């Protein structure tokens, strides 16, 4: 009886020892793989930086060139418009050489261009419709050109900057015989003949 009790006690002690050992056993830790370190290629970094800088510089230069072209085109358009405005004719009533009130604004618009181009000289050409004799129309065209010249002189333009000529009925703007055509032919035309190269725009 006592022997059996001792055997059971020994078995219990063995089981306890095994259980204790199992509880104290540490878990197996698998180490993480070492990170792969890629070596730095400084030449590649420098080349990429240079490429970025060169691209940025090209973009800057392209933008500046585009802005210069746009400014030059705008200036050319403004000069063309100013020249066209300067050459707008003034018109007269039948058999008259006095300047109509509705034509004075056209002459006034020419003054800033005269002032911006102090060396500019012009020619004012008088024209008539085809009614009347050649001699009469030449004289009428001359009076019309002279009337415009005096108008400009009265507003400060030097006399020596304005030449006058008459073509009478020889150069019609509209080669027809009706009132609309005659009204367009009774005119003074303006031509820049010197001193406007380069052409300067009036200050705004």
Nearest-integer average pLDDT: 87
List low-confidence stretches: none
Approximate shape: rod-shaped
The termini sit apart by 130 Å
Instruction: Output the CATH topology of the domain at 79-194.
Output: 60s Ribosomal Protein L30, Chain: A
Roughly what percent helix? Answer: 40-55%
What is the number of E strands?
A: 4
The share of residues in extended strands comes to 5-15%
List the helices and strands and how they pair.
Blueprint: H1 2-24, H2 42-86, E1 90-91, H3 104-108, H4 111-116, E2 121-127, H5 134-154, E3 162-168, H6 179-185, E4 187-194
Parallel strand pairs: 2-3
Antiparallel strand pairs: 1-4, 2-4
Give structural notes:
The structure is a single chain. This protein has 204 residues and is an alpha+beta fold. The protein has a domain at 79-194: 60s Ribosomal Protein L30, Chain: A (2-Layer Sandwich), CATH 3.30.1330. The chain is built from 6 helices and 4 strands. It has helices at residues 2-24, 42-86, 104-108, 111-116, 134-154, 179-185; strands at residues 90-91, 121-127, 162-168, 187-194. A 4-stranded mixed sheet has the order 1-4-2-3. Helix 5 (134-154) links the parallel strand 2 and strand 3 (162-168). The longest helix has 45 residues, at 42-86. The radius of gyration is 50 Å and the shape is rod-shaped.
What is this structure, in a nutshell?
By secondary structure, the protein is α+β, with helices and mostly antiparallel strands.
